[in-house]
Model the fold of this input.
Amino acid sequence: MCGIVAYTGNQPAKEILIEGLKRLEYRGYDSSGIFIQNSPPYLARAVGKVAELERRVWNSAPDGVAGIAHTRWATHGKPTEANAHPHTDCGDKLFLVHNGIIENYLVLKKRLLEAGHRFKSETDTEVLVHLIEAGYQGDLPAAVQKALLQVQGTFGIAVMHCDHPGSIVVARRGSPIVLGIGESASLAASDVSALAQHTDQVVYLEDNEIACLEPGNFSITTLDNRSVNRGTTNLEYDVESMDRGSFPHYMLKEIFEQPEAVENALRGRLNHAEAVAKLGGLESVQERLLQARHLIIVSCGTSFYAGLFGRYVFETLTDLTVETELASEFRYRKLNLRQGTVVLAISQSGETADTLAALREAKRKGALVLGLVNVVGSTIARETHAGVYSHAGIEVGVASTKSFLSQITILTLMALLIGRSRDLSYEEGHEIILALERVPEQIREILKQAEHIRQLAVKYCHAEHFLFIGRKYQYPIALEGALKLKEIAYIHSEGYAAGEMKHGPIALIDPKFPTLALALEDGSYERIVSNIQEIHAREGHILAITTEGNTTLGDLADDLIYIPRTHEAVAPLLSVVPLQLFAYYCGVLLGRDVDKPRNLAKSVTVE
Ligand code: F6R
Done:
C-alpha cells in the first residue's frame, strides 16, 4: 500500500521517479507526488492516477538529479492534493514520503501544534516531517532517527533536506524498503519493480533500520545506533514481463499466462518414479514437516481462498488435521499451538501486513512457519523458516489471477509430498501427478472459450447481485469467483457452500438474482444438482460450469460453460479460469478500470 521511490545519481530524476511510480502504481493510485532537489526545490502533487502527475510534471519539472516520489492509497484523509505526499515541514526544507500508519499521530500532532508547527494536511504522515524538523540540528539521519524513536506504528519512509544535496535517508518498520545500488546512482523503493531497470544490485532493509543513500553508496544502522554491515545481493528480475504486449489489460494477459504459471509451478518438482513432489525450499525442515500433526493455513483475500482449497487437498492426501484462518483474525486469537503444528502463510506479494503479523505470532509461539509466496525476497519469504516460491511471475493486475492458480498448484504438491510419506499410495499419488501435468493444456482449451464467456458477460453484466455456489473443492472457487466479480465489476456477489442455500440465501432468489453454480461431475454432483433444482423452482437464472460431455444440466441451467474432465482435487485449477474471464468481461463491459479497481491496492501493507 502506497509506493515509494527515491533516486540520487547523475541523471535527471524526474523520468526515473515517474517511471518508478508507474511500476509501483499497483500499490495505490488515488493520488501521487514528486519532489526534485533543485534551486528552488520542486514539488508537485496530483489527485488521481500517476498519469495525472506525469502530465503536470513533464514540462515544468527541472532536471535535478535527486528526488523522491510517492503513489498513495489513502488511509488518513481523503485523496486530495494537500493529503498527497511528499509532505513538507514548516520551513519547506524537508520533504518526506511514507508508506504505513502512524498510530500515535494524534498525540504527536497535539504536541507539535502546541510547539507552533503548522499542519497542511489531514494525514498521519505529516507528523513525521514536523518531528524531524523539531529534532534537526544539521544532521539529517540523526534527526530522522530521533523522530522515529517517538513513533508507534509502521513506516517505510524516504526523506530529503534542501541543505543536504544528493542525500536521501530511508527507514523501515513494517513497510518494505529495498535499496538499489548502481555505479553512480542509488535508489530506494517499496519493491524491486521500480529499481530493476537501473541496477541488479539490491539490499533489503530490515525492520528498525535506517539507511543513508548517496550516489552509488549507502550505509545502514539500526534505529538504536548499531551499524549494520550488509552487502548487496544480485537481483534476478524479468523486466519484460511488466509489458502488457497486445493485451488490452494486464488482468487478461495474466489470465492467459496461467498455463505457463502452472508449468512453472510444476517445473522440476514432480518425481514420477516415486509419485511424489520435490520442493527444494522445504528440504531444510523436512524432518519437522514429516513429523507434523496439525497444519494451520493463514492468509487474506484470494490467498485465503487458496488456503481453503488447501484444507481440502491436505485432508484428502494427508492425515494432518487442517485449519484455515483469516490472518487478520488469527493474529488476535489466543493461540494454543499444539506440538507438531505447522503454520503456512500464503501471500502473493509477501508483504501483507495481517499475514506477516500472523506468522510472527505463530513463530513466537514456537510453530514451524512456512511460506508460499510469489515475490522473491519479500518480507514474508524472508521471515518464514522455509517455504516455496510460486513462480507465477510478476502479477501487475490488482486482482490476483495467475498467482492463485500457482498457489493451489503448489498446495497440491505440498500435500502430495507429505501424503506420500504417510498413507497415500503410489497409485493415488501418481494419479494426482498425471492430472496436474494435463492442467496447462486443459487451461488452454478453456481459454479458447473466451468469446463465449464474453457473450455470457454481455447477458449477465447488468445484474445487480450474483450468487456463486459450489461444494467441497468447488466451494473455495465459488468464493473466489464472487470476490473477482465484486472487485472487478463492482457487482454485489456472494459465494456460498451450496448446502447452505436453504439455510438463508435462497430467500434472495428471484428472476433478477442469477446464480453461478459450479456443478462438475464429481462426488458432489448429485447434491449440487438438487441445489440447482431448488433455485430453478424459484425462477432463479442459472449459469453453470460443468464437465465436458455433461448431458443432464441442459434442462436446468440457462447457460453452460464446459471444462475438461479431471481429478476432483485438481478440478479447481480449471474451474476458476472461466470465473476470472467472466469477472473480467463484466468489468470491461461496465467500463470499470479492471487493472486498478477503485479503493484497492495490490500489496496491503497496513492492518
Ligand atoms: C484479490 C486479491 C486480494 C489479495 C489479498 C492478499 O484479487 O488480490 O484479495 O489476495 O490482498 O494479498 P497477498 O496474497 O499479497 O497476501
Q: What stands out?
A: The mean pLDDT is 94.
